[in-house]
């Protein structure tokens, strides 16, 4: 409303704090669909492709957790995932992600943070399989071959985080080269799972043909 009325205050694309966050990033992060829709309409492509001080995009913020998200144990083995405690925000997350991807396209899907991570890494880190499936549907299998600054694939991240369901999905969708690839320190996804004592995941990956070359390091 302030923008439409010519208010001289904060503009929709203006960075609001020392972290470089914009109004759209805050709205996307907290799941406010109507606010996101409005800011996307008035902000245009520049707003969609804005980055914060860590080069995180609004899509990454939409995927990642907010203050209404907590960590909960997923299994008896001590695996942890993010879970929305605000049902409104949880139900709105996919709608916002779809809105942003439709507007930003491939450029938004392939944008990288300072750590070299694309949006698909954020979906894997927060353990959201439905978001991962959607991003792959829109961006193609090429997204699975992306590497961060340390050479980690999304499968390596899922194995390290201990998300069995996501690893099962990725084993069936990654090509052979991605499955058996090494990070910059020559560690595989299977060796990362072993280091974290995720035995079921390690066994799954070994059965898929992934070697255990050497002791892994922390992500």
From TrEMBL:
Parts of the chain that traverse the membrane: none
Top-level taxon of the source organism: Eukaryota
Swiss-Prot/TrEMBL keywords: ANK repeat
Swiss-Prot/TrEMBL ANK repeat ranges: 19-45, 115-147
Name this polypeptide is given: Ankyrin repeat protein
